[in-house]
């Protein structure tokens, strides 16, 4: 056998791919298209106030709170697992954080790391049980959905002496130097500067209508960028895709699959803890219904963002836009003449379309017919 | 891991073997899977291990790749006695095995599969990241040297044909410094065209000075590339022949007839 084949022949059977076809293969395409469609829909039907700066901040705030959870959920889904306990985890870590600051009077520099550590420990317990038992994470975390919600109720009653709401967080953290990183608005100076020059809407007294960028939006963007970087540019990201794509093949190639999956459960729990800290500080109190049904909304946002339910495929950017779609629809309907309750119909419809779309994309990518 | 795979070329069969397995026995409880198998691989040769189902081929290569520990017998690696405790040990010594399931993930790109678990990085501390450009370049080069032009390195493995996937697995093993490449029935599930591509790939690997162990039960595929042929039957070697010393018919008879003989002997001699 001689080696006479020319080294760089172009295979005549390959059609050159158009830009559109290449774009089709990006997992986040569906979510970006969704954002465009939803924007067009509300541009036509909604009050123009929705797309002013204050209107945008209005729908970006709930989008950001959900989005932080959705990015965690998306990473875990790419790694091939689910976490249905994140909504309850928000309530549970909210309770822990509120109790730490109000009941035990800890400063934020202690309370916040403690909350993250505590949540990560619960997340790793989830992961450990899933990995050790080999059971589907769906069922294990479903159990934790109820366990954590129940513990939050019981814990709240213990901490407050019978109430399901724990108040006084705002007083407890008053003047703490760490507070501005987790509550309030960022870039207040920039908004005031823009207002002075008449670049943003102002009240009659000259103050900007939007005092600053709500801090959760800043966190949302940072986490989306960080998650994207990890997934696309680090070995850990490669391991996450590999662990979700085929755990067995990944293990045989030297990927520490167990460690990757348990770490992902911890990351997801920490995302829940971050949302809990931000919302509890914002509201000044915590209650047992905090984060209710957020696990489903986060998974829906991740699926709209292109994550496959079978794992190994998806993106953090997709979940970012998935969460924005969510926020736009929830808040946007109040700017229209439609009944608010259309929201649920819209949501279910979006999910169904996203799943059908993702399934078609997966077949294209894997060359299945 | 280095990408130094340049050894001496040509006149391979006269050099010392890289791996030498002597009188390997493997028992699982009271079952004797291997009853004294001797086999060796030299740099730059393709040594075919032939045998029908149940002959002990799988057990034997698993012993060679560190999955099983032999019950009896010696393994010499580059002249020194060696004992592998795990597949990882064997891999690090330079024995790479491409099993039938290939350890590939269809949804991931060729590059990501190529470097799965062994990603090169650049930068340090929190800025440590995968060297994506180098990874893509290496993958394209590795595949081109095996005669396959990828459309793009970010093409999903799922879009490749079975033969191309086999080639990715082989190129990956070669890139990570394999001295011995064990291929477990690489042609068994492939069409005619893809089979010839894989056989051509084996030839290219051999020319780089790597010793190839080619497991097959197809005599024609073995004869197309093999330098030496060892036939395994009921846990024993029926003999090793050099290319040219044996005709296809003889080899076929050895595989088929040998089995009949062994079966006959087994039933006459009685194993109880």
Q: Could you characterize the architecture of this molecule?
A:
The complex is a heterodimer of chains A (369) and B (272). By secondary structure, chain A is mainly alpha-helical. Chain A has one domain: ABC transporter involved in vitamin B12 uptake, BtuC (Orthogonal Bundle), CATH 1.10.3470. Chain A is 68% helix and 2% strand. Chain A contains 16 helices and 4 strands. In chain A, the strands form 2 sheets. A two-stranded antiparallel sheet of chain A has the order 1-4. In chain A, helix 3 packs across helix 15. The radius of gyration of chain A is 23 Å and the shape is globular. With 272 residues, chain B is of the alpha/beta class. Chain B has a single domain, classed as Rossmann fold, CATH 3.40.50. In chain B, 34% of the residues lie in helices and 24% in strands. Chain B contains 8 helices and 12 strands. In chain B, strand 4 and strand 5 form a beta hairpin. In chain B, helix 5 runs parallel beside helix 6. Chain B starts with 18 loop residues before the first strand and ends with a helix. The N terminus of chain B is likely disordered. Chains A and B meet through helix 11, helix 12 and helix 16 of A and strand 8 and helix 6 of B. Chain A: InterPro entries: ABC_transp_permease. Chain A: One of its GO terms (cellular component) is plasma membrane. Chain A: Pfam families: BPD_transp_2. Chain A: It is a multi-pass membrane protein. Chain A: It is found in: Cell membrane.
Quick synopsis:
The complex is a heterodimer of chains A (369) and B (272). Chain A has 369 residues and is an all-alpha fold.
The gross shape of chain B turns out to be globular
Question: Looking across the biggest beta sheet of chain B, what order are the strands in?
Answer: 6-9-10-3-11-12
Number of helical stretches of at least 4 residues of chain A: 16
CATH superfamily of chain B: P-loop containing nucleotide triphosphate hydrolases
